[in-house]
Amino acid sequence: MAFFNVLIPVFAIFILGYIGEKKIGFDPKSISAMSLYIMTPVLVFKTFYTNIVNIDYLYITVFALTLCIALILIIYLISYIRGYSIKEKCGLILGSVFMNNGNYGTPVALLLFGAAGFDYAVILMVIQTIVMATVGIYFAARGSDIGGGFKDTLGVVMRMPIVYGALAGWLFQVTGITIGSSFMTTIDLVGNAAIPTIMLVLGMQLAKISLKNVEREKILYAVMIKLAAAPVIAWGIAFFLPVDALLKQLMVIMAGMPSAANTTMYAIQFNTEPEFVSVCTFVTTVLSLISLPVLFAFVL
Known about the structure:
Low-confidence stretches: none
Helix content: over 70%
Mean pLDDT: 86
Distance between the termini: 17 Å
Structural class: mainly alpha
Strand content: under 5%
Number of strands: 0
Number of domains: 1
CATH topology: Na+/H+ antiporter like fold
Largest sheet: none
CATH class: Mainly Alpha
Shape: globular
């Protein structure tokens, strides 16, 4: 029952965004841009400023990058076999590679493992945010209408403020720069608004699409990659890492989380299959009600 209590706020925010779009009507792209360029960089700055970097960051970074690369290679193979376009391939990457370990994963980690698991989950959330802000945005830009080669797409990534927010937060921490309480309150208010805003945008985007027009084959691929293949690959990666048993278990469980809502924001911003990515996030979140208890039974 406690597991479902974690999900109630998640779906409630989706529903609010959905109702708001249906009854009032908003511009999801403008709101996602506000979250992408203002709120999320502040949240990342706060996370790096308030969490001490240690050796666990290195191992979790290796885990996150290896898992990301492995899943992307699977999608490249599927896209080659099925003859998907660059836009379709990038949309499938956005919809099935990155995990929702923020507003979903961290409460589950606290529920399953207590404070120790929550601390690990926060570190993983930080690393995953950076991976999404670089690799995720790269593929969002690569599949967008602006096109371009590697250098052009990399230029788009380098102009995104999220990475600089992380770098600034880390520099403030290691140099011992102290932020006053009043200014820290501002950072808290802006940063804490990022995740619910992203989820509201997802609800708005879901109100704009028709499930009849979504390609079910691609959705099936996304579900299988995110909820089945990802935790299996994560288990293989964690097996070889010199970390304690709790962190190994957490890595596998976090890999089995549904698709990240952040990628919907990227897809909307760059017009890279936003309808498909939104449906992937929603469907994997709903199906995680079944897949996660099964994963818990195997891992715990």
